[in-house]
Design a protein that fits this description.
The protein is 38% helix and 10% strand. It contains 18 helices and twelve strands.
């Protein structure tokens, strides 16, 4: 650069003409100074650029370091999730020894099977670990069930009633809570099974009794084993049918808001209680008492059999009518040392009078038919109890868990769940297998890992021991409270709706005759939402309750199809007078021949 400057200087200097002898010296010195200054400036510019490059490099290095840190953190998280997934997958078929398995000890008052005072491997008392099983997060379960329902319109309840009437539903009621009172409208209440109709309404009446601040709600309940509103986007024909029925645009109906006894991720139904929770208090053909009476009995009976005394075989007793239970029976025939299936139908109750233990048939294994029965305490004598699908689910699951035995849950055929099952985990509260064919291998594995089996049995028992009637009604109250916040309309009793205040109001409303009624009445007004005041004179027809002589409508009570009872609702010659012929919207008074009888 200096040479370039000097060459320019020399090329310009001759054009200036003669000059004093000192000027070339001064000009040359100036040029040299200019060149040096230029060189210094250029070097400073280079240093400045290098500093900027260095700062940029440092910033890039810092960003790269932060990125590496985030990547490492994500990798660690992924490894943790993978390990957790592997553990869950292994647990479903072949779980590792449980980290909360307890040492044999006695005196646990909560479970009654003698592991409460042991110590888990991490040093925590087993009783503390079991206490964690006694709390139900109903808010989370109800919120998850209602997640698809951001808003519920009144017309979706009309659609729900239509869904009840077009698919052979045996029970369908519209229930309304208005200012603390319960109102009922029947759309299906089948005549031949009427003694189980109150069980569909009683869950709401019981929730109102315990939770008097329950908000106003308007709901439709379908009392069937199967849900009513399928939603299988992976099955083209099913999804197309769903969309045709409820397109939801251009004036088409939206899907119905309807409650059912069982639900799953493949349906849009909301969870209701299966009728077995509120069986009649008086003797009936299924013989099982309501959960409020049964639960404490099972808790006590399940604690009478020590773990060490249980037979190491997987047992099922009861109905073997479904294809899934038939598969289980075939497995029992092939593997009698691991599986025992004792077939027994409802019709056998009056014929078979001896228990399998009394006949010495309880430890034989294999598949035996209609020879003996088992009391609940006898069932608790097996370490492994089988829960297999009957019609989409099995409502005995809750009872089996109270035995203090490992419940082997066969997933095949279990399409739906009851509400409480969303608070249970496989590998924690029960042991799951995919098919009946896997049961023998699972039994062998559980025998080898007895501590794990015992921990699962204890956790399942502790979980269900806390599910008493107070907990059940707590779920109902939470579910309906969240439901009420999604209603986009003001609740008012339907025209012609029947007010229900007491349990006996339900029995009187659904009674087929006075002889029939006498077998179910409790004659206890303590069940009333608004009990009569002390000293009040009680009189018919309600005797302290709200009953005023109502009956289900005839069309709701009978299948009027040509292959069923096409003439059952002939007003002149009715099949039964314990029904109403009043139109929808009118109060359902009974047939004139029976009006005096019921009022």
């Amino acid at each position: 650069r200096v040479r370039a400057v000097l060459s320019v200087h020399r090329s310009v200097l001759p054009k200036l003409g003669p000059a004093p002898t000192t000027r070339p010296m001064i000009s040359g010195s100036c040029c040299a100074i200019v060149a040096l200054v230029a060189l210094l400036c250029l070097s400073q510019l280079r240093i400045f650029a290098q500093r900027r490059e260095l700062a940029a490099a440092r910033e890039l290095a810092s960003l790269a370091s932060a990125r590496d840190h985030r990547i490492k953190a994500r990798l660690k998280r992924m490894h943790r999730l993978l390990r957790a997934a592997e553990v869950r997958e292994n647990v479903s078929v072949c779980p590792p020894p449980s980290p909360v398995a307890t040492k044999p000890a006695s005196g646990d008052s909560a479970t009654g099977t003698g592991t409460g005072s042991g110590t888990a491997e991490d040093g925590l008392p087993a009783s503390l670990l079991l206490k964690a099983q006694r709390s139900w997060d109903w808010r989370a379960i109800a919120s998850e069930a209602l997640r698809p329902w951001g808003s519920i319109r009144k017309e979706q309840l009309d659609t729900a009633v239509a869904a009840c009437n077009d698919n052979g539903t045996m029970y369908c009621q519209r229930l309304q809570v208005h200012k603390g009172s319960l109102y009922l409208t029947d759309y299906r209440a089948i005549f031949f099974d009427r003694h189980y109709a109150p069980a569909r309404v009683w869950p709401l009446l019981a929730a109102l009794r315990r939770h008097r601040d329950l908000p106003d709600v308007d709901i439709v309940v379908a009392g069937n084993d199967e849900p009513r509103v399928p939603a299988f986007p992976g099955v083209g024909s099913s999804w197309a049918k769903t969309c045709r029925r409820w397109p939801g645009e251009k004036g088409g109906p939206l899907p119905p808001a309807i409650f059912a006894s069982t639900t799953s991720r493949g349906v849009m139904d909301l969870p209701w209680l299966d009728f077995a929770w509120y069986f009649p208090r008086k003797p009936h053909k299924l013989r099982t008492p309501p959960w409020s009476l049964l639960h404490p009995q099972l808790v006590e009976a399940g604690g009478k059999v020590r773990w060490e005394d249980k037979l190491e075989i997987a047992m099922h007793t009861g109905n073997v009518g479904s294809v899934h239970r038939k598969s289980l029976a075939a497995v029992a025939e092939r593997a009698p040392r691991e599986v025992f299936v004792n077939e027994l139908f409802i019709g056998d109750h009056g014929k078979i009078r001896q228990t399998c233990k009394e006949m010495g048939l309880h430890a034989t294994g294999g598949y035996q038919k209609h020879r003996c029965f088992m009391r609940f305490e006898d069932q608790c004598g097996y370490k492994y109890l089988l829960n297999s699908a009957s019609i989409g689910y099995a409502n005995k699951f809750k009872s089996l868990l109270l035995c203090g035995s490992v419940v082997l849950y066969v997933r095949e055929g279990m399409r739906h769940k009851e509400f409480y099952e969303y608070g249970l985990l496989p590998g924690v509260h029960y042991h799951a297998v995919d098919t009946a064919a896997e049961v023998p291998a699972a039994v062998k594995w559980l025998r080898e890992h007895d501590e794990y089996a015992r921990a699962v049995a204890e956790a399942g028992r502790a979980r269900m021991a806390s599910l008493d009637e107070a907990a059940v009604t707590g779920f109902m109250a939470e579910l309906l409270t969240q439901y009420s916040k999604r209603q986009s309309f003001r609740v008012a009793p339907q025209p012609g709706a029947v007010r229900i205040d007491c349990e006996d109001d339900l029995w009187r409303h659904y009674a087929l005759s006075h002889g029939w009624l006498s077998g179910y009445l409790t004659q206890d007004n303590a069940s009333c939402l608004h009990p009569p005041r002390a000293g009040a004179v009680l009189s018919p027809p309600g005797w302290g309750g709200a009953y005023a002589g109502s009956k289900p409508r005839c069309y709701a009570s009978h299948d009027l199809g040509p292959q069923a009872q096409p003439h059952a609702c002939d007003f002149a010659q009715p099949f039964s007078t314990a029904e109403s012929w009043e139109p929808d919207g009118a109060w359902p008074k009974p047939h004139p021949r029976a009006r005096r009888e019921w009022t």
